[in-house]
Amino acid sequence: MLVKEGETTGETQFLETSFEFGEKVIKTTKMNYRFANNVRLHQDKDSPFINFVQVKEVTEWIGKKGRPERIERNFTFITDILVTKNNIAQLAKGGRTMCLRN
Questions:
Q1: DSSP assignment of 54-92, as one string?
Q2: Nearest to 3, CA basis, from 75, 99, 70
Q3: Domain range holding 76?
Q4: Residues in a beta bridge with 28
């Protein structure tokens, strides 16, 4: 399942954080949140409506050899909670916590 450009019902939201490790390594993580509410789980008319969250996480840093490093991760979640620009980061964080515990 993927939310395509133009299909989101809510705003795209960005969050950026930086972490310093030692004297030289600085990691920057950017989170891009997208969501759509009241989407059918399947394409048939009897399928339940869900709310969909997509998170793209990009972490960048300078590696030990002085080369730029980059990791991209994509996460998707479904929920019955109405998703808004005010609660999307908290919902995504909770969804990631559940995924990591299982």
A1: EEEEEEEEE-TTS-EEEEEEEEEEEESSPP-TTTHHHHH
A2: 75
A3: 13-101
A4: 18, 60
* Confidence (pTM): 0.69
**1 domain-assigned:** no
Using CA atoms, how far residue 41 sits from 19, 29, 46, 78, in Å, is 38, 31, 10, 9
- Tally of domains in the chain: 1
* Closest by Cα among 49, 102, 57 to 75: 57
Q: Is residue 25 in a domain?
A: yes
- Say how far apart CA 85 and CA 38 lie, in whole Å: 15
**What are 19-61's pLDDT values in tens digits?**
666 666 678 888 888 899 998 888 888 999 999 999 999 999 8
Cβ neighbors of 82 (< 8 A, separation 6 or more) are 37, 51
